[in-house]
Amino acid sequence: MLRDDEPTLEIVTEGHSWSFDGDGALLRLVSEAHRIRLAHLFDPLLAVHTSLVEPLPHQITAVYGKMLTRQPLRFLLADDPGAGKTIMAGLLIRELLIRGDLQQCMIVCPGSLAVQWQDELSQKFHLPFEILTNDRIEAARTGNAFAEMPLVIRLDKLSRDEALQAKLQQTDWDLVVVDEAHKLSASFFGGEIRETKRYKLGKLLSTLTRHFLLMTATPHNGREEDFQLFLALLDGDRFEGRFRDGVHVCDVSDLMRRLVKEDLLKLDGKPLLPERRSHTVKYVLSDLEAVLYKQVTDYVREEFNRAEALANDGRKGTVGFALTILQRRLASSPEAIYQSLRRRRERLEKRLGEDREPQRHRGHDEEPLWTLCLRGELEEEDLTAAEWEAAEAEVVDLATASQTIAELQAEIERLRGLEDLALRVRRSGRDRKWEELSKLLQTLLLEERKEERDKREKRDSALTSHFSLLSPKLVIFTEHRDTLNYLVNQITTLIGRPEAVVTIHGGMGREERKKAEEAFKQDVTVQVLIATDAAGEGINLQRSHLMVNYDLPWNPNRLEQRFGRIHRIGQTEVCHLWNLVAEGTREGDVYLSLLKKLEVEQKALGGKVFDVLGKAIAGKELRELLIEAIRYGDRPEVKAKLQQVVSDRLDQNRLRELLEERALARDSMDTTKVQQIRQ
């Protein structure tokens, strides 16, 4: 502006430089906004005080002591399952938002946990995350849903979809959190790195974000070189090249934090979680059940042998997968094996009636999930329980080793005979497994003290309600929907109150599952939850401290996952788990030796033994042992070998070594730290 412009200027508002006639409301608004922006300088735990959580000492130290101080954050949070890692991530996100350090955030997790993440972040931290679905992708205003919202996305959806990854590459993030991050695995094979699709996704995510948080309770698989590849996702320069013992030193104390839940403390310095105990309940099959078991096992064994002769490796694997499922249903219940045999016979008859070759399959727009599992591109843990149940249902009735019409007809006739035998067992009313569960139920749920019965008879509703609150609640896990339906009928009849039993399975929608979960936790009339492994996915059941494995999983990690539903933060009672096992059956004897050894080591190592069970004997290894028992378990030398393998895997010295390996960069929560946090 020049002097020549002066005539064109005019005074719009007259006033003094320091007048107080401005807009007071606007001044208050601006000053309040500035105060909130700087609030973290005066309240170092602002996210805690503005969220609906009561964090524990180990959660506060993780967020405010380990993570917020790192700029940028490249960190591995490896606390035990049930320690509340979701709460820690929520506090971190909330604190970064308050400090103006976070605009774009993404959660990458297994599909089974997506809804839990969304619910926890919304209810406890008021953070509106959306789950990235196909509909949301298609409805994106800009054509790229990644650029439009904070979101939760399924790990395998993103790792398998190259088109989605191309859109992801066009975005930048302030924070990416990967839950169950051990799935981003890679390994050395023949001197070269074998990178899975999930590992490649991890490398991509690492380049797109400033803050990168990996969360897993199982970061180490026992191979140091694989562990270094995993850590390269956080610091590629530092962990470059193949690890060689004696040459490389792997100090990860500045990159990760690990606490085992047996060592966690409350603010008063007492242990956070109670003890957990496992019990084995053995039973012997009735005579008719034993006949059915032998005949079905013989059928499975012979079909396995026929499948081995197939030239097509893919079909060979599919048939083996189907036969394995059939054997597991045989061990589950008479109802499950009867329905499975009936459906398989009807499916093969339909194929025969359509005059189709047995080895031909229905076309698919995409590869079936079970095919990806067989090829090793997916693991059972990567699928939701609903997807796994659907994959089982599709393959168990579909795959057959029969190669000609005559062979198929012979197999159908054999299935018809097995189906008739299974129906006889079902109608006999002799189910030894159910009889053992019935005894347990009557001990845990139906035995009442005389004074309680007297008070109930007085029809005093207030007293009835009060004593109902004291009634124990029980979680029962089964692997198959047919067995679940069977148990509902049996337990309802035993208890005499249909409203006392609720169920959760993979075929239920989100709202229906939530309703069943809340009924079990809040409704005093509900005593029993019967569930498939869908209830092992993101559901907190610490309202109960009693659990029964009606069916034992062939993946030992599932034992810890199931037990972890009740043994987690908020549990106040000693947790008990009963495992039902058929003595004298081939796979039952293998599992009995495993459980017996587990109980012995539990006395020496406490509940920590469950933390390394899946590492001591891997899921794939246990499945192979059980299949070998089914096929060759009648040979004494094979039986002895199987027993020895289980004994070696659960040797006490080996378990102690695994516990030490899990203690990588392990922090301690002593009473001094807890006292500082209280103050």
Helix content: 40-55%
Query: What proportion of the residues form beta strands (DSSP E)?
Result: 5-15%
Mean pLDDT: 79
**Strand element count:** 15
Total DSSP helices: 29
Major β-sheet annotation:
7 strands, parallel
Residue stretches low in confidence (pLDDT < 50, at least 5 long) are 357-366, 448-453, 459-470
The CA-CA distance between the termini, in Å, is: 60 Å
- Spatially, the strands of the biggest sheet line up as 3-4-2-5-8-1-9
Explain this structure to me?
- There is one protein chain.
- With 679 residues, the chain is an alpha/beta fold.
- Helix content is 51%, strand content 11%.
- It has 29 helices and 15 strands.
- The protein has a seven-stranded parallel β-sheet. It has a six-stranded parallel β-sheet with strand order 10-15-14-11-13-12, sandwiched between helices. A two-stranded antiparallel ribbon has the order 6-7.
- Strand 3, helix 7 and strand 4 form a beta-alpha-beta unit.
- Helix 24 packs antiparallel against helix 26 (619-632).
- It is elongated, with a radius of gyration of 29 Å.
- The termini are far apart.
- Residues 357-366, 448-453 and 459-470 have low confidence and may be disordered.
Task: Give a nutshell description of this structure.
By secondary structure, the protein is α/β, with parallel strands linked by helices.
Topology:
Blueprint: H1 24-37, H2 39-42, H3 46-49, H4 57-67, E1 74-77, H5 85-98, E2 105-109, H6 114-125, E3 130-131, H7 134-138, E4 151-154, H8 155-160, H9 162-168, E5 173-179, E6 186-189, E7 192-195, H10 197-208, E8 209-215, H11 224-231, E9 256-257, E10 276-284, H12 287-308, H13 313-332, H14 334-353, H15 369-374, H16 385-396, H17 405-428, H18 432-446, H19 450-457, H20 461-469, E11 474-477, H21 481-495, E12 501-504, H22 510-522, E13 528-531, E14 546-549, H23 556-566, E15 575-583, H24 586-605, H25 613-616, H26 619-632, H27 636-649, H28 652-662, H29 671-678
Parallel strand pairs: 1-8, 1-9, 2-4, 2-5, 3-4, 5-8, 10-15, 11-13, 11-14, 12-13, 14-15
Antiparallel strand pairs: 6-7
Helix pairs in contact: 4-5, 5-6, 12-13, 12-17, 13-14, 14-17, 14-21, 24-26, 24-27
